[in-house]
Amino acid sequence: MLKDYMGIISLSEDESNIRSLTVHRPIASIPIFARYRVIDFILSNMKNAGITNVGIFTQTASRSLIDHIGTGKPWDMNRKNDGVFIFNRYLNAAVNSDIKLLKNNLEFLYRSKKNKVILASSYMVCNMDLEEIAYEHEKSDADVTVVYKKVENGDNMFLNCDSLNIDKDGRVTSVGRNLCLTDTANVSMDVFIMNKEFFIDCILRCIQDGGCDTIKQYIYANLKKFDVRAHEFKGYVGCINSVNSYYRVSMDILDYNVMNELLNTSKVYTKSNDSAPTKYLNGSEIVNSLVANGCVIKGTVKNSIISRGVVIEEGAEVINSIVFPKCVINKNVKLKNVILDKNVEIEEDKVLIGDKNYPVVIEKGSYVGI
Amino acid sequence: MPKKEIVAMILAGGQGSRLKILTRTNAKPAVPFGGKYRIIDFTLSNCSNSGIDTVGVLTQYQPLILHSHIGIGSAWDLDRRFGGVALLPPFESESGGNWYKGTADAIFQNISFIDYYDPEYVLILSGDHIYKMDYSKMLDYHKEKKADATIAVIEVPLKEASRFGIMNAEEDGKIYEFEEKPKKPKSTLASMGIYIFNWQKLRSYLREDEKDPESQRDFGKNIIPKMLEGGLKLYAYKFDGYWKDVGTVDSYWEAHMDLLDEQSGMDLNDSYWKVYTADYSYPPQYIGVDAEVKNSLVVEGCIIEGEVRNSVLSYGVKVAKNAKVVDSIIMNGTEIEEGAFVCRAIIGKGCKVRAGVHVGNCQDIVLIGDNKDIKENTKNE
């Protein structure tokens, strides 16, 4: 258990290619895999490694995130000592910069009794053993350990991620951006391990020197000065940085091996909703789908992900689609390659068909009808 | 001193021996129900949804699972600074220890718990019924009638009336006679075992009853008749929703089938009257490529690749390819392997029904305990 570690989750994440799902929320609180939110994965990874002190630094509209995290109880982080803290943006801060937000909340870092920091983002969805990586880091004497994933670039799944150039000793020599021009890339998972003192020093020097908006930029800009080592993660990683990648990662989970790895390697915790069991009525047909509690299903569902409290009426067909909580899909509706955001209702007999690379996204709370 | 208007006391100490192996190592109120619940969740959720925030749970028989399930009551919003849920098992005092000898004795022994909150009213409940009821409406009725005690009643078919405690009441609801399991019932208003008492009145009757060596220390058999004799004002409060005593294996199975019946009046999926329970954080349910799920309730963590009909599956149940589950209740973590066939069965948690094995003959209800490895065709344990 990582008793001497605190977690910092920086949500200064690039939302430019996932706007339609982040109008009302940060990437961190996009519903995913029927009953989770994106941030549940990194938070659960931290909880499972024994971390009890986490600061979440968020820049954009955070109502849904704050509602989801609450007191941190699902992750056992409603603690008297430590626990989870959310630091909101303040006026005039640049959305993609976390450095000022961190600087303004240095108090949080000073006050914590922990001496080491795991800095992470939410958009890299995985079930990761942080404990093992932290022990590696401690043995290595490196200033910083950064976790990466060796990816094939054929499917553009990790487009626009940071890619690390690593020498034979495992040191990071330079960092570029993955435009998928090479066959493979060492994509940074934005998980960094370092001493708290070092972390605080980086924040202060970054402001002193200028030129960097984020803490990771500062580390990458000083690779000659610091000893930054790369640690390879071998498991499944889903990168949520565009609507397209969100859709494809969601479909990946219908592969039983991916599902088992992501959801069962160690437990993934989320806010409970006290939904009733899902009711399948006579006439329902469900094939290869992930379904949350609280649904009432009378129609057909194929290769889809159905979140909590969704109603699918008779004769409706939902194919290759993702349905967010509390949507109502009325009689004889046909949906294919569609993402329905929360609380959407589709009137009877409507047909919506998207492309499998460019799914149709219906905005939160819409009524699709006359 | 702060005080509470009403304190609820849930009688949850009974064994429920007619549920056979379901209650061998578990109290009846803690028996799993409806896929993700335990029986007592319905009563606790009723309290929470009715705005009652002070609840004592009287436990006695095999309380381990019951105690850990209730915990500090946060699942029902009953973790409060003043009030909340309290687990009240029997205890020892200077004059020695005493088991709870009856429903009234259990309350008598906890007079000091109730006195601590100095309530106007006490609501007595049992922890083994499946129903949704707004107790605040019953309390309004109790106050409106200026009653000393109000007893919730439900209309039962005449031929079944002799199995219940029957209240004979006047037009306006005033009870003039109580008959415990009468051979020739005069009315069909059965007591639901739900009572609201004016606390001070109940308190004095409990003290009196404790001195009576003949008494069985039971609300139905002793306290209510004595109150009628004593000329107190007792009123019947008619409840017309779904209510089921799941005291036998048959009624337990029937109550599950009622959950699947749209017309039964028991809808778990009602966001205005949620049934709360402890949360276990399972992944969503996965329904596979060749699966067929009809008229069933399925909860998180289930992986279904075979056929499921008219059944209720609990957390993490696996139904493999070509396996078939019909008219059955499967508890958490049980695996039904390839080609197995389960029909009209109640299977406990953590069991394995091995490939090709048949459980049940589709006529009698088959009951299988926890953690069994079922390698041969089984009709009953």
How large is the count of helical segments of chain B? 8
The side-by-side strand order for the widest beta sheet of chain A comes to 5-4-1-6-11-8-12
The share of residues in helices of chain B is: 10-25%
- SS-derived structural category of chain B: alpha/beta
- The CATH topology name of the largest domain in chain A reads Spore Coat Polysaccharide Biosynthesis Protein SpsA, Chain A
pLDDT < 50 stretches of chain B: none
Structure description:
The complex is a heterodimer of chains A (370) and B (381). Chain A has 370 residues and is α/β, with parallel strands linked by helices. Chain A contains nine helices and 29 strands. In chain A, 22% of the residues lie in helices and 29% in strands. A seven-stranded mixed beta sheet of chain A has the order 5-4-1-6-11-8-12. A six-stranded parallel beta sheet of chain A has the order 14-17-20-23-26-29, with no helix packed on it. Chain A has a five-stranded parallel beta sheet with strand order 15-18-21-24-27, with no helix packed on it. Chain B has 381 residues and is of the alpha/beta class. Helices cover 20% and strands 29% of the residues of chain B. In chain B, the strands form eight sheets. A seven-stranded mixed beta sheet of chain B has the order 5-4-1-8-13-10-14, sandwiched between helices. A six-stranded parallel beta sheet of chain B has the order 16-19-22-25-28-31, with no helix packed on it. Chain B has a five-stranded parallel beta sheet with strand order 17-20-23-26-29, with no helix packed on it. The termini of chain B are far apart. The chains are: A alpha/beta (370), B alpha/beta (381). Strand 14 of chain A pairs antiparallel with strand 18 of chain B, so a sheet runs across the interface.
